[in-house]
Design brief:
It is built from 2 helices and 9 strands, in the order H-E-E-E-E-E-E-E-H-E-E. With 163 residues, it is an alpha+beta fold. The longest helix is centred in the first third of the chain and has 19 residues.
């Protein structure tokens, strides 16, 4: 049931944020249940701009939505600034992303890519720890589809402000 509520909350966030397109600003929204009624729970989210490239395009528009559920973090990648979100493969896979910190250090983090799309980080993941301890820092992120599957060559690059 909780998974369904989170999915419904994601749908509400997509409708709200893609209508306004406010970038680089963390906001809160209320999660709703399957009837559209508020659950009393909130999540924080922000939109960021970036680019993606693959064999068909170079430096095309990318909108990134980062959702902070408190106990987990979801990053969704929207190629050409449109839904649906990009998926890293045909099945759920683990892979690596690279993060360039404000001090110039580059770090790699393990990420889970569900077959439904996006990148998911749990509270026991190193990226989650970095996200929680780096408030106010702006980082640059690179996601290579090839790190998650053998079939894709898309590369996603974006800058993200950590709340």
């Amino acid at each position: 049931m909780k998974k369904f509520l989170l999915t419904m909350g994601l749908a509400a966030i997509t409708a709200i944020t893609f209508g306004q397109l406010t970038y680089n600003e963390w906001q809160e929204t209320i999660i709703v249940d399957e009837f559209g009624d508020p659950t009393g729970e909130t999540v924080s989210y922000a939109l960021f701009e970036g680019t993606f490239s693959n064999s068909a395009t170079t430096n095309s528009e990318l909108i990134v939505k980062v959702i902070d559920y408190g106990e987990s973090i979801l990053i969704e990648l929207y190629e050409y600034g449109r839904t649906p979100g990009a998926s890293m493969g045909y099945s759920s896979e683990w892979g690596q992303i690279s993060v360039k910190r404000a001090d110039g250090n580059v770090e790699s983090y393990r990420a889970f890519a569900p077959d439904s799309g996006g990148l998911y980080f749990r509270s026991k993941d190193d990226f989650y720890d970095m996200f929680r301890s780096s408030g106010g820092e702006t980082v640059k992120v690179i996601v290579k589809e090839s790190s998650f599957s053998d079939y894709g060559n898309s590369v996603y690059v974006f800058t993200m402000l950590i709340p």
